[in-house]
């Protein structure tokens, strides 16, 4: 159960990393009338941040798997 909750937490975190900057960009575009530039910037920023997090997550899972296999 602990492993499942860990993965739910990680999945939720990555999802929010992708969605929140785009939503913030949309809100700022509406406020400052700069459509669609801030949405694009937010989406790219969110994508890059989420991919970085996914790579770190995959590397740590790989290390844990190797450590478990070696023991």
Helix content: over 70%
Order of helices and strands: HH
Classification by helices and strands: mainly alpha
Number of helical elements: 2
How much strand content do the residues show?
Answer: under 5%
Q: Tell the overall outline.
A: elongated
Mean pLDDT: 94
Uncertain stretches of 5 or more adjacent residues: none
Biggest sheet statistics: none
How would you name the oligomeric state of the polypeptide chains in this document?
Answer: single chain
Total beta strands: 0
Gyration radius from CA atoms, angstroms: 17 Å
User: N-to-C terminal Cα separation, in Å?
Assistant: 22 Å
Short description:
The protein has helices at residues 2-32, 37-70. It is mainly alpha-helical.
Describe this structure in words.
With 71 residues, the chain is mostly helical. The longest helix is centred in the last third of the chain and has 34 residues. It starts with a helix and ends with a helix.
Q: Which keywords apply here?
A:
single chain; 71 residues; mainly alpha; elongated
Task: Indicate the topology.
Layout: H1 2-32, H2 37-70
Helix pairs in contact: 1-2
